[in-house]
Amino acid sequence: MKIPDWLSESAPCTCCTISVGGKKNFVEKTLVEIACMMERSIFSEKYVSAKGFLQSIDPRVKLITILLLIITISFIHKTEIILGIYALTLVFAYLSKVELFFFIKRVWLFIPIFSGMVAFPAIFNIFTPGEPLITLLQFNRTIHFWIFEFTEISITRAGVLGALLFISRVATSVSLIVLLTLTTRWTDVMKSLRTLGVPQIFILVLSMTYQYIFLLIRVVQEMHLAKKSRTIRTNRTGEGIEKEQNWVASRIGTVLMKSYKMSDEIHSAMVSRGFHGEIKSHGTFKIRNIDRVWTIFSLAFITGVIWLNYLV
Amino acid sequence: MHIPDGYLGPITWGALWLVMIPVWIIAARKLKKDLKTKNVPLLAMGAAFSFVIMMFNIPVLGGSTGHAVGGTLIAIVLGPWAALIAISIVLIIQAFFFGDGGITAIAAESFVLGLILPFVGYYVYRLISTNADISSSRQWIGAGIGSYIGINTAAVVAGILLGLQPILHPAVEGKFQYFMYPISISVPAMAIEHLVLFGFVEAIVTLSVVRYLQQTDPSLLRIQTKAVSIEKAGGVSA
Questions:
Q1: Which of A210, B34, B135, B189 is deepest in the core (most CB within 10 A)?
Q2: Where do the TM regions start and end (chain A) (predicted)?
């Protein structure tokens, strides 16, 4: 199904701004997070139905080759190679009609930026000793702090290169998995897990979970909207915090009760439709020439990358 | 506590896949003992619920908010083996469809959040609440303490896994390959934030939900004890 333009061109994404400080209270924060999640899934639908390159590849072939690539990246220790693969993900995003700005934003926000913060201290000589690039502070005696000993604070070459390797590995892995889910229907991704030996019953639970997550999230959203619309004075001073905590706990408890009861009803509905513990999947995947070419290309690429990494 | 791809080296994530595959198989066998068909929607709803718990922000002191993982709570209601499966499913969905957490690290994350957290939390809860009445305050006290210890143990284990990286994959030409800080930094960093903040969020959520269930629908707290007693009775007759 194609999402109409007016629906997909929504208001500026509020979720992508990490709010610091206590401006938003917990009700608003939850609502924003939920809206963000919904938005992400709507955007994913938009690209799945585009007639691009990766969309035309068999989901099983795509899943396996992308997973193999992610595993390969985990073994590579040359930053240039990983950046080369990153560049290729941009090419394939373009060929698959995914807007590059959206793709880059989706990949880099949160995880690689967070990883950047994690890696930042490691560029200094305190964590990664080595040839200094810039010396920030020079002491005339050895400083002992916790488990560290140092005579200067400087940014080291090895530190910067290590951080770069770390961030590029994280970002490229995220890019590959985002590329997979943007160009493949989630039901097809789940079905394809079967080829990896994941039991059918597990895939059924996985698919049902994915569907019911959205139902339960809608319930959570309505609870918070109801509370927000009934709140006259927002409580930001922290008084009555216990009451608010109890409110959250009672809502979690309610969702728990609802989902437990619902699982009973779903079970009855499944049994009355003939479910007896076995599932037959109606797979209609077909391997075509483009899939064969893609498989050969991917395997050759992975072999080439490993050769470059270890032998050159 | 999501671990993206690239934080753990192949030795660590590979070893944890080897650990978790048999653990998942054992969990599946344990659950098959009960009604087979009923488990499908129960696990799906349990997993969907554990995904949704993380959407609830709870106010903590100083105007800040946090969210719980809910592992101990799910283990109290559905049992630790069902919690293991439910949380693993959530981690798979988050890794694939929401880009949270790495693909190679799914087993490592399931080990920390699906195995360590609910099992430690659940058995501490059981230890405190043994033979306690459903309405007893030992139930929610046990839930609170159990979830606090559970999440902190998980945080320390995650810290150890991350801190092992510079040892397992030493720096090549001076640059580190994966997570770069040693155990002496990663464990305190993980432990401190969980001891002072996330542990309390987890404990507040778990104990308040258990108290709420005691007042409104105590039967939910009995599912587990019922299943255990059925299993025992079945074992005797067989």
A1: A210
A2: 63-95, 107-127, 158-181, 201-220, 293-310
